[in-house]
Amino acid sequence: ANPPVAPRVESAAQEVTHQVGAPCQAGATHPQNTPPMPPSPAAKQVESKLPHRHVPSQPNPPAAPRVNAPLKRLIWQKARNKCENCHSRYALEIDHRIPRALGGPNTPENLRLLCRSCNQRAAIQALGLRKMEPHLGKGL
C-alpha cells in the first residue's frame, strides 16, 4: 500500500530543498565537505513541477523600510487628500522628493502625496526615462 500523496510530495520537496550544511529533519547538519546525495526519482519529479527560481550570485541588498502608517496619515492630511501638484484625487501615491533609489529618507520633509501621473513624471525627471520605462503604466 502506498502512503497518501501529500506526505510523499512533502517528503520529496524536503529532499529537493535539503542542502549540504543545512539542518536535517533530525536536527543534525551534514559536514561541509560531504557531497550531496543525488536526488531520488520522486524528488526529481517534484522539482520538475516547481517553478524555476533564479538564485542570484550575490545577495540582494536589504529592502528599504516602508513608510509607516502614522507617517502616511500625516502626508495625506498635509496634502488634504489630493495630489500636491495637480490637485487630482485619483490614484494617489506617496512620493519621495529625493527618490529612495538615490538615498532619499522616509521623512515628512521628503514625502509628498502625488497622483500616479505626477509621481511617474517626477520619477522620470529624477531617474531618467530609461530607468522608469519598465514601470510606466503600472504605477510605481
How would you characterize this protein structure?
This protein is mainly alpha-helical and 140 residues long. It has a domain of 67 residues: DNA Binding (I), subunit A (Orthogonal Bundle). Strands 1-2 form a two-stranded antiparallel sheet. Helix 1 packs across helix 2. The longest helix is centred in the first third of the chain and has 13 residues. The chain is elongated, with a radius of gyration of 24 Å.
Rg from Cα: 24 Å
Whole-number average pLDDT? 76
Percent range of helical residues: 25-40%
- Strand arrangement, major sheet: 1-2
The H/E string reads: HHHEEHH
Q: Keywords for this structure?
A:
single chain; 140 residues; mainly alpha; DNA Binding (I), subunit A; two-stranded antiparallel sheet; 5 helices; 2 strands
Set out the fold topology.
Elements: H1 5-17, H2 41-49, H3 69-78, E1 92-96, E2 111-115, H4 116-127, H5 129-132
Helix pairs in contact: 1-2
Summarize the structure.
This protein has 140 residues and is mainly alpha-helical.
